[in-house]
What does this fold into?
Amino acid sequence: MGEYIIKVNNALKKFKETTALNNVSIDFEKGKIHGIIGRNGSGKTVLFKCICGFMSLTSGEITVREKKVNLNKMLDNVGIIINEPGFLPSMSGFKNLKLLAMVHRKINDEQIRNTIKMVGLDPASKKHVGKYSMGMRQRLGIAQAIMEQPDILILDEPMNGLDKHGVEDMRNLFLKLKNDGVTILLASHNSEDIKLLCDTVCEMDGGILTQLKIV
It folds into this structure.
């Protein structure tokens, strides 16, 4: 049994009369890809937002690397894709990422360029993000999530907008990151993503989480 890097203990999240998370308990092992499936509104995104500290729990506790997650306290060394990535439309992909990289000042221009190449985009392109296709924006969003070399990735539908080749490229990238020791939480509607990528699979339904066996 490996080390558990994220622990969710009796997580309850209510919005008035709606229970989005119904006493969810799950531990995620370090260095693996953990898939979460479920239809829209099942609670997957709410769980991810609570793990990231974007939402508070009604009750229960979530810890990341043995530290309790607190509302609006930024997690260290975690890459996140939740909802559509937001970029400044009048700037190039490189300039957008450089601006974001200035927050932590962990990486230099060359590392940003290398990350943009990793996701299949051209770091020298002057094209404004506002003129990107949805797939290009999604690739740039993935670049943003991984550029500071986090050891945890939390990815909510990261394949949205990608064509067949883009999906294949990102699957290969995620497997490489896993081999490098990165822990990945992945929500996807695509059963093929789950089958090819994930070491564990859970299903969310009505705020209840059930761990599934991988055949």
